[in-house]
Structure formats: C-alpha cells, structure tokens
Design goal:
It is a single chain. The chain is of the alpha/beta class. The strands form three sheets. It has a seven-stranded mixed sheet with strand order 3-2-1-4-5-7-8. It has a seven-stranded mixed sheet with strand order 10-11-12-16-15-14-13, with helices on one face. β11 and β12 form a beta hairpin.
Length: 276
C-alpha cells in the first residue's frame, strides 16, 4: 500500500518524528507558526531532510499547504492557527488535541483540565472541521498525570500517546469511516490573568494545580495586599524562624514567600517576582 503523504502542522519535534518514522506515512513538510521555530525543530528537519515552512495567518497557511502535490492530509499537534473552511474543503485534516473531547475544548485545554483536578489528560485524535474542536472523535489516549508532574511533563508524554493513536490515524487516512460525534462538552477561552491568579484564601489544591498548569508560562500569580507576584513553582517545606507571618502568609524581606498549610508545613513559593 502506498505511503500516505502528509504535512505536519505544529511545533513539537518529537511528535513530528513519530509521524516521520511510521512506515505508513511520508511527511513531506513541516508547517509552523512564525515565532515558534526552535533549534530542536531545525535539527529534526535537517536530519530528516524535510522542509520547514513558517506561516503567520490563515491565508498564508492555506497558500503554502496547497503548494504540496498529491497530499493526503494535514496532521496537526501543537499549532496555533485555525485552518480556514476553504482549506478544509480541499484537503482533510486531523488534529491531536491535548484534552479529552468533548469535555475540554479550546486553546488551553490542559490548563482547565488541571485546575479541574483531572488525574489523567486525554490526547484526542479528531477530524478537523471549520467549527473549532468539533470534528468527529476517532480515538482518545489517556495520559496519567502524576501528583508531582506539571504541564511540561505532559508535553514529554505526548509523542508516546501520538504513537499509540497512529494506527487509528492511518485507518482514517485509508478511508475507513468510524468514530463518534463530538457533542456537548465545554469550550474554554484562552487562559486569562484571573484564571491563573490565586490568593491566601485559595485552597492548597487550587494553588498547586494553577502553578503546575502554568509551568510552561512562568507560573501562577499570587494576589496579596493590592500587589501581584509571579510565582514560578511551589514546594512543601518547613517554616523558618526568620520568616514573619501575617495570618496564613509567610513574609521574608517584605516579600510573601509561602502559605501556612496543614501538618505544620509551608506551601513555599519559588522565584517570587513583583509584577504590579
């Protein structure tokens, strides 16, 4: 059977490589959004002799993708530009969505799944339609989400999850009609400042989940006495004598550095930075 000719749209080199090394696929190009090109992706492209195309909008994406001849599909994972309806009329597309559909639709599904306390994160393979995250669901791989793991750790697990779903993708590329309707669920907007902000009254679970959900973006925001502090990470620690305490907030050198929690411990803030 002839190899299926695809273009990968996304900025995750390890995911791209899972597609490249699959014996049923021929990746003829890598398309990514301008500003997301990394040295690792260049390394991959040079090693595998696959061209990289950078695009900045829907129109440019459509134009560049249609330059490829005899293309079977676009395969997407980690891509920020929405495909136009006119492009989807001309070529099929499939997306590896980092969230369990239909429950977690939108641009940042892992954030909202994390703060919801999900213990696994779903990577969903679905057909791409003009309506965002609404195409038929072809398969879901459940990724365990350990208590000490964060969003960076999840991204490291995506290539293995993609590999597990490749037989499903190839079946779809071969014209097999299957899957389930993508009905219901919730569409979440991009993460706002309010979504990633916590206070001294937030529960430890809420704080820990916000911080790990924002590990790729500098951490969460602690709002305290009309000021906001960026907190990159947190850990459970012992209180130190040189720290002052204001209610449940530990202070050192006029900076909040942690919160009192159960068992005589401190939820200690790391890399605290005043932002406003």
């Amino acid at each position: 059977m002839a190899l299926k000719r695809i273009v990968y749209c996304g900025n995750l080199p390890s995911v791209a490589d899972e597609l490249i090394i699959d014996e049923n696929l021929e990746v003829v190009g890598i398309v990514l959004q301008k500003g997301t090109l990394t040295n690792e992706m260049v390394h991959l492209a040079l090693l595998r002799s696959i061209p990289i195309i950078e695009v900045s909008n829907k129109a440019e994406l459509e134009s560049k993708c249609l330059e490829f001849k005899n293309l079977d599909a676009l395969v997407i994972c980690g891509f920020g530009i929405i495909l136009s309806a006119s492009l989807l009329e001309k070529i099929n597309a499939y997306n590896f969505h980092p969230g369990a559909l239909p429950d977690f639709k939108g641009r940042h599904p892992t954030f909202f799944a994390t703060v919801a306390g999900e213990q696994t994160i779903g990577l969903t393979l679905h057909e791409v339609t003009p309506e965002i995250d609404a195409g038929k669901i072809l398969g879901i791989e459940r990724i365990p989400y350990g208590f000490k793991e964060n969003e960076n750790d999840l991204f490291l697990k995506y290539p293995a999850a993609v590999k597990s779903l490749l037989p499903t993708l190839i079946s779809a590329l071969n014209g097999n009609d299957f899957g389930v309707k993508n009905q219901g669920g919730a569409y979440y907007p991009p993460v706002s400042e309010g979504d990633k902000t916590f206070t001294k009254d937030s529960s430890p679970s809420e704080i820990l989940n916000i911080i790990r959900a924002q590990s790729r973006y500098g951490g969460g925001i602690f709002s305290y006495k009309d000021k906001s502090y960026q907190v990159s990470s947190v850990e459970i620690a012992e209180p130190l004598e040189e720290w002052n305490i204001d209610g449940s907030v530990f202070i050192y050198d006029a900076v909040p550095i942690g919160l009192k929690v159960d068992y005589g411990k401190v939820l200690k803030f790391n890399e605290v930075k005043l932002i406003k």
